[in-house]
């Protein structure tokens, strides 16, 4: 099972993830129809990408009145069954990250599906802000970094 | 049309008429976009003896067929007009979200003609355009004006405009977009003379590639290369703002490393690239030996001058001559300069005299250095550079992207079969149009 690891301090506000996403899913370049969105603040000096986190206890799944959201066993992604979806947009309401979007042009919900196990946003990200990896190992680098900081305390305690 | 949107917007500021026009396929194929298309349109539109401040001097914004795509560093657009003080052709290419947003809104470029009787701004929302009064923005710095514009139009709009320096007709006034990317000394003054404060754009339309699968594979491979091996550029630093590149090399990146640059322009895939001065006595931001704090300090200074619409290097030269004792005194001088209260040219102009190359591109927004990738002075290199600028790719990739690669990208994007020779011929023609002498573009 994979997970998308977001490292906000590595995000350079380049929007490559949005382009890769809309090219893969919609065959066009259009950030407005991507399943990932880059948010920036402080006059664009800081930014991060936001997308569906594929929650284990997914609110969207629980609330969907048409039972249209299921799990892809291979990738672990929560997938919308377009045939079943009644476009009530309750999943937009339920998502704690505000992740899903409604595409008025195609009249469908845009939700990250992990591109069938090869997320294009992670492939296109040039700075390591979006990395796709195994749930249990993908964040080892972050853990190591945090441990480095704690090392100082550990050494101090011994003295 | 694939790659291109096939539409230009003509804006007549004198009459207020806003007219969409077709971009002919034959013209697009011959000029690509950006620099090539801009020069073509300017030559067609303007009388030969156009004075920079006159209403008949068209101000042209152009994107390329690869602008706004997933191609590495594909956020490029170009601004073109005759610039003060001598009426030379001013060509400035810059990156950022503005060019891509214009394409998402349905246009390849904008031709601005005439002169508005009172300050206005142009608002483009998905193919619809409107001129709105900008009296309340006149005199405001770029950041403040941008924030007001976003509140008045769309929070997700992108703004390119001028600061007080442009309004006051300074030779060192730039066009600034997304707060931090800027180019074209003198072009800001042209925009000011037209009473055009800014162009705000919002687009959600999207556009397609002729061969989407082929294009996706090409650009993802190129991106993987740029991440695995970062570009290390070495060169001579001029006026603390231009890096004249002597050599570039590929440096293997270490896995899990932090990007060297905290910011990138739209599509920037060179976040691990480093710049270094050959002369080790010169310190340079964005090099491996410079701390993040030092780079940030420089960036803060860069953004402060840009906020007033001033060219970073030129404004610094002018201010340094006055030898401000404190930082607040320097800030005060910068304000006076932007509001037209100081002479706009440094004495003994360091920009003429042959030693300074013509820089017709905006600096890297991560550190304020304009990277001039004149590697060998080889004509083929120059031609390819003109093609990158016209196609919509940041010229930082020049020397690291072959004519074959550019041809493959253009073919997959547009569906027009380009060979490497075709690509170089387009470049040759663009450079020929400009002529060696009139190549004096905006320094930005």
Please, could you describe this protein's structure?
The complex is a heterodimer of chains A (159) and B (444). Chain A has 159 residues and is α+β, with helices and mostly antiparallel strands. Chain A folds into two domains: 1-51 and 117-159, 2-Layer Sandwich (Alpha-Beta Plaits); 54-111, Alpha-Beta Plaits (2-Layer Sandwich), CATH 3.30.70.20. Chain A contains five helices and eight strands, in the order E-H-E-E-H-E-E-H-E-E-H-E-H. In chain A, the strands form four sheets. In chain A, strands 1-8 form a two-stranded antiparallel sheet. In chain A, strands 2-3 form a two-stranded antiparallel sheet. Chain A has a two-stranded antiparallel sheet with strand order 4-5. Chain B is α+β, with helices and mostly antiparallel strands. Chain B has a domain at 7-202: Aldehyde Ferredoxin Oxidoreductase,  A, domain 1. Chain B contains 13 helices and 16 strands. In chain B, strands 2-1-6-3-4-5 form a six-stranded mixed β-sheet, with helices on both faces. In chain B, helix 1 (25-31) crosses helix 2, helix 2 packs across helix 13 and helix 12 packs across helix 13. The longest helix of chain B is centred in the middle third of the chain and has 17 residues, at 212-228. At the A-B interface, helix 1 and helix 4 of A face helix 3, helix 4 and helix 7 of B.
């Amino acid at each position: 099972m994979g997970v998308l690891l977001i490292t906000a301090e590595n995000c350079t506000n380049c929007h490559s993830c949005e382009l890769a996403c809309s090219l893969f899913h919609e065959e066009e370049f259009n950030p407005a129809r991507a399943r990932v969105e880059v948010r920036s603040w402080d006059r664009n000096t800081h930014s991060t990408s936001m997308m569906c986190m594929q929650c284990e206890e997914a609110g969207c799944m629980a609330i969907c009145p048409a039972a249209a959201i299921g799990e892809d066993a291979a990738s672990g992604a929560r997938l919308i069954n377009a045939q079943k979806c009644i476009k009530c947009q309750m999943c937009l309401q339920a998502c704690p990250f505000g992740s899903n979007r409604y595409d008025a042009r195609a009249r469908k919900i845009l939700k990250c599906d992990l591109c069938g196990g090869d997320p294009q946003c992670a492939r296109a990200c040039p700075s390591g802000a979006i990395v796709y990896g195994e749930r249990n190992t993908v964040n080892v680098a972050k853990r190591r970094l945090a441990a480095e900081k704690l090392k100082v305390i550990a050494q101090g305690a011994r003295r | 049309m694939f790659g291109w949107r096939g539409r230009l917007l003509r804006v007549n500021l004198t009459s207020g008429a806003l007219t969409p026009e077709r971009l002919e396929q034959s013209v697009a194929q011959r000029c690509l976009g950006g620099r090539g298309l801009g020069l073509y349109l300017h030559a067609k539109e303007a009388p030969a003896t156009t004075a920079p401040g006159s209403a008949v001097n068209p101000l042209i914004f152009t994107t390329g067929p690869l602008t706004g795509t997933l191609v590495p560093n594909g956020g490029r657009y170009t601004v073109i007009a005759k610039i003060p003080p001598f009426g030379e052709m001013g060509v400035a290419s810059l990156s950022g979200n503005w060019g891509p947003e214009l394409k998402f809104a349905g246009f390849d470029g904008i031709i601005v003609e005439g002169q508005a009787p009172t300050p206005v701004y142009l608002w483009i929302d998905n193919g619809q355009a409107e001129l709105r009064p900008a009296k309340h923005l006149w005199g405001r710095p770029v950041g403040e004006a941008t924030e007001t514009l976003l509140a008045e139009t769309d929070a997700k709009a992108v703004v390119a405009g001028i600061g007080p320096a442009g309004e006051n007709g300074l030779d060192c006034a730039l066009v600034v977009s997304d707060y931090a990317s800027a180019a074209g000394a003198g072009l800001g003054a042209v925009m000011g003379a037209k009473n055009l404060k800014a162009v705000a754009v919002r687009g959600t339309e999207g556009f397609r590639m002729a061969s989407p699968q082929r294009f996706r594979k090409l650009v993802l491979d190129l991106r993987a290369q740029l991440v695995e091996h970062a570009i290390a550029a070495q060169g001579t630093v001029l006026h603390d703002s231009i890096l004249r590149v002597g050599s570039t090399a590929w440096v293997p990146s270490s896995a899990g490393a932090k990007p060297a640059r905290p910011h990138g322009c739209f599509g920037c895939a060179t976040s691990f690239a480093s710049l270094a001065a050959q002369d080790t006595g010169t310190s340079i931001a964005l090099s491996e030996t410079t701390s993040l704090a030092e780079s940030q300090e420089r960036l803060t200074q860069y953004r402060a001058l840009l906020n007033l619409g001033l060219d970073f290097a030129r404004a610094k030269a002018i201010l340094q001559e006055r030898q401000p004792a404190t930082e607040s005194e320097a800030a005060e001088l910068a304000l006076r300069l932007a509001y037209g209260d100081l002479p706009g040219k440094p004495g003994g102009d360091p920009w003429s005299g042959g030693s300074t190359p013509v820089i017709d591109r905006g600096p890297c927004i991560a550190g304020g250095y304009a990277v001039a990738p004149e590697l060998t002075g080889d004509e083929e290199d120059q031609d390819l550079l003109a093609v990158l600028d016209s196609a919509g790719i940041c010229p930082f990739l020049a020397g690291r992207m072959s004519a074959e690669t550019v041809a493959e990208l253009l073919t997959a994007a547009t569906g027009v079969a380009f060979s490497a020779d075709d690509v170089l011929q387009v470049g040759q023609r663009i450079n020929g149009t400009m002529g060696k002498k009139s190549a004096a573009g905006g320094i930005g």
